[in-house]
Amino acid sequence: MSLVFNIAGATVCAVAGAGVCAMVLNSRTRRREDDRRREADAQLEKTRAVANQEALQLRTQIEQSLAAHRLELTTQERRLTERETLLNSQFNRVIETETDLKQQREMLERKSAALENAQQALIALTQQRREQLEQLSGLSPTEARTQFLKEIQQEALADGAKVARQILDEAKTRAEEKARQIITVAIQRYAGDQTFQNTTTTILLEGADIKGRIIGREGRNIRAFENATGVTVLIDDEPGAVLLSGFDPVRREIAREAMLRLIQDGRIHPTHIEEVVAAVKAEMEDTITRKGDEAVTRAGLPAMHPEITKLLGRLHYRQSFAQNLLDHSVEVAQLMALLAAELGLDVSLAKRAGLLHDIGKAVSHEIEGPHAVVGADIIKRHGECDEVVNGVASHHNDVPPVGPLGILVSAADAISASRPGARSESMTTYIRRVEDLEKIGGSFPGVEKCFAVQAGRELRVFVQPQAVSDDQAFALARNIVTKIESELQYPGQIRITVIREMRCVEVAK
């Protein structure tokens, strides 16, 4: 019985344990399902939120696209409306223009008909007038036409001469104004040194006894020095100094350098004097080359042929009216650069032509011919271009100029030679030139009086109005210019002004 009870109790316990397990399992199952449901709900909610957001974005995009499309449609409608309005206005103008053209065509047709009628009447009147003229003059149509053409030809020739004279005067005035402007600009932009005539060199002496040593016993040292150098040594003219006098600047420079070396060395006797002078003469070639190189550098040009450079250096010891020819050549080169820049020409070629224009003066007198032509031959042999060669050869009109360089060199040469302070001219020479200028002006018939003004740069000629007409006054000025150019030597240019005036004087009483 107890066994039965035990079995029954065990059975009840088993059933109760099974029920408890079933309840536990059901509880866990329900919790899992609840978790799955909550996760599903959360996922659904999240998906719904994403879908709503995407739907909202899509809606916003669609609305923006619709708004842009609506704006574009509005813009197109406005443009179509404006175009339609413009087309309507153009159409109205076309209609108005067509109406005006129609009216003008009708008016032109009426005027053409009236003109044709008037032309027919003119032809008839001309024929009638011609018949009347033939009856009155007794000339045939051919003779009348010939006489009429002759009169017309004479009138045309007179008018043509008058117009040609006006054109020539106007062109001359403009050319003179332009040339004056260019030359004035070049002169204003250039500033050169003044020069004065100098034929002596002074050497200061430090001691009182050096004068006696220079003179030597019975003057033998000073005689040896003068014989070796070719200059005159003046001792007593100025205390504490020795004056070297000579017209040849090369010899004077050699004498100056030799004297300084002798004084510094202290040995002054005839043999040593000859040795020092010979050494200085030998060194002169290097000095000449250096002077030529310095001139090329001052002109702003690249290095030239060595022989040309040496010839340029020799110009340093040549003078014209006390104007140093090398400085004059550099000055002409700089003026050429200014003139060429004003005219738009090659500045480098202009400088070369200006620097080399007087190089013919540096060679020996054994080479015959004008210095311009001689210099052109020299630079041509040493590789200068044809433009520069012709500019050098033609600057004194020895050969005709091919390009503008020859004319510009002539102008720059005249500017450099005639500017104030450039050259030293004696008063006697100046007075003689002015007198000759006035004499040439008064040698022509009809001239009442003439005066040289502006330091001989202008000649004013007063003529008798009864003897010289306006046309003859122009010819007189040209003839005076021709005679001055052929008979006088002068720097720069001389202006000829012919003055013709009629004075009528009455006195009221």
Describe this entry's structure for a reader.
- It is a single chain.
- Strands 1-3-2 form a three-stranded antiparallel beta sheet, covered by helices on one side. The chain has a three-stranded mixed beta sheet with strand order 6-7-8. A two-stranded antiparallel ribbon has the order 4-5.
- A hairpin with a 4-residue loop joins strand 6 and strand 7.
- Helix content is 69%, strand content 7%.
- Helix 2 (141-189) crosses helix 8 (325-343) and helix 6 crosses helix 7.
- 21% of the residues are buried.
- Residues 193-197 have low confidence and may be disordered.
- It has 14 helices and eight strands.
- Among the domains are: 304-424, Orthogonal Bundle (Hypothetical protein af1432), CATH 1.10.3210; 427-499, 2-Layer Sandwich (GMP Synthetase, Chain A, domain 3).
- The longest helix is centred in the first third of the chain and has 136 residues, at 2-137.
Report the sheet-strand fraction. 5-15%
What class do helices, strands and sheet pairing give? mainly alpha
Cα radius of gyration in angstroms: 55 Å
Give the full name of the CATH homologous superfamily of the domain at 304-424.
Hypothetical protein af1432
Please give the CATH class of the domain at 304-424. Answer: Mainly Alpha
Average pLDDT over all residues: 80
Can you tell me the CATH topology of the domain at 304-424? Hypothetical protein af1432
Low-confidence stretches: 193-197
Strand order of the largest sheet: 1-3-2
Count of runs of 4 or more consecutive helical residues: 14
Give the total of beta strands: 8
Q: What general form does the structure show?
A: flat
Give the terminus-to-terminus CA distance.
197 Å
Main sheet overview: 3 strands, antiparallel
Going by CATH, the architecture of the domain at 304-424 would be Orthogonal Bundle
